[in-house]
Write a structure and sequence with these properties.
By secondary structure, the protein is an all-alpha fold. The protein has one domain. It has 7 helices and no strands. The longest helix is centred in the last third of the chain and has 28 residues.
């Protein structure tokens, strides 16, 4: 998982934009799997896509945060570093970021390889279930309030 998250932050995930740049897909085939409107880059897939941004905003607003569209995933991580204070809140932010990005990737893969339709409610439920499970596995009782999600 850490390798995958590092690839996301470094903009090295194999998205449709990557496949287009290496002549595996046409421009038309390179559109986002979730919205079919924009070129599917890492930043689009994990932040800027309307589908994705709805998940982020629902989670962030329930935790009392607000955000603007960052330029990239790396910029998002940088912004968030100023939004939290203390080790526990930083761990909570990392958990939230990891759960959202990982579950978006799983949902994207389900669409690509299993021909499932993108579904905001299913993806959001997957994120919430992962947060709950990962919090149970964490012995430090992070300050992320899952009841508000």
């Amino acid at each position: 998982m850490q390798l995958f998250l590092w690839l996301v932050v470094q903009d090295k995930v194999t998205t449709r934009e990557f496949l287009f740049q290496h002549d595996y897909l046409t421009l038309q085939e390179s559109r986002c799997a979730f919205c079919n409107k924009s070129l599917e880059s890492s930043s689009h897939l994990f932040i800027h896509c309307h589908f994705t941004w709805n998940i982020w905003m629902k989670l962030l607003s329930n935790q009392g945060f607000s955000s603007v569209f960052p330029k990239s995933v790396d910029d998002m991580c940088y912004q968030w570093s100023f939004m939290v204070k203390g080790k526990q809140q930083n761990l909570s932010r990392q958990l939230l970021f990891s759960c959202v990005v990982w579950n978006l990737w799983l949902h994207w893969n389900d669409f690509i390889f299993n021909y499932a339709s993108p579904n905001l409610q299913i993806c959001f439920s997957m994120v919430c279930q992962s947060i709950t499970l990962w919090l149970r596995l964490d012995s430090n009782s992070l300050e992320l309030n899952i009841e508000n999600v």
